[in-house]
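It would be a great kindness if you could assist me with a short task in structural biology. A protein sequence and the structure tokens that stand for its backbone fold form the material at issue. I should value your view on which stretches of the chain appear to form regular backbone elements. The record follows directly beneath this note.
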Amino acid sequence: MKEIELKLKGHIKRLTNETFKFDERIKDGWFSAVYFLKTKEITKAFKADNIITMQFFQKEHAVLCGTDEVIALIHTFADEPEKLEIHSLKDGDKITPFETVLTITGPYQNFGYLEGIIDGIFSRRTSVSTNVYNVVKAAKVSGVQKPVIFMGDRDDHYTQQAGDGYAAFIGGSTAQATHAMSEWWGKKGMGTMPHALIQLFDGDIVEAAKAYHARFPEDELIVLVDYNNDCIEDALKVAREFGDKLKAVRVDTSRTMIDQHFIRHPELMGTFDPRGVNAQLIFALREALDSEGFSHVKIVVSGGFNEKRITEFEEAHAPVDMYGVGGSLLKINIGFTGDNVILNGQPSAKAGRKYRPNPKLEIVEHELIQYSK
């Protein structure tokens, strides 16, 4: 196994193929487009002395993620990686359309077959980090940042959790639903109770919360209160039972449901959409908790939230303390492209593409790269 140390912007990052759990079949071209593999063989036979520069870019305003992973990939699977010249931005950099984020210079046959894999790493990681950055930004009003919980475990294949969690961390979310999501950046997942726990106690919110608190007394007690579709009444039941021990309540009402609060008070309806988690429900919940002296209890909302909905809640000054966001953060909407733009020191690219130098790129210093078995 190779261990790689590289210095970027004055600090040392330690990257290993164990960190990223690369599939060893990458070396055999199993995950590369076949035309890249054929080009590698043709180049070895007919153009072995070539030196090309490959550059990578995308077309959005984004938060870059994937550079560490890509550099580790290159130094794990390229032939003679120590002879390649690599310039890179770093994870977390803000990038603009067509801005060059990485260049690799060396013989095509030594690394060219990794092009599609590099595009894919950048695309997924940057999409997630940018999505998270945008919702975190939406949840910051008047200089106060409300936490965003990354809850993307059920929205994609489980093997993606570590990389997605790292990208979410780069985007600004440090509260994550699984241990795997925080594997690459050294924390552990956080969470309280699902609807399943309340079901096991026949829908009794208080008894479920008692069991949770008895088993995990050191945890902050955050209780899910929408199981019976009566958020305010159930929140008050839990608050009366636990008092100062209750940290927060979470509202996760389905968008096809109308909470019992509005059924009891039909006069409140008619000027807004009463389904699901809505700002009016959260205002009413806050007022009910405060009226009984439970102003310390925070409110967490989840269920279909994205940048647009968070912005709407914040513009309405809804009294939300924390957002839980899942599927919308995993939309892959940023695609990267790798182009060969210099051949043997001379500009050379397909029509419509060209070398785009970027003074922000930093060289990966090869003297800091160490290999050990």
About this structure: The two ends are 5 Å apart (CA to CA).
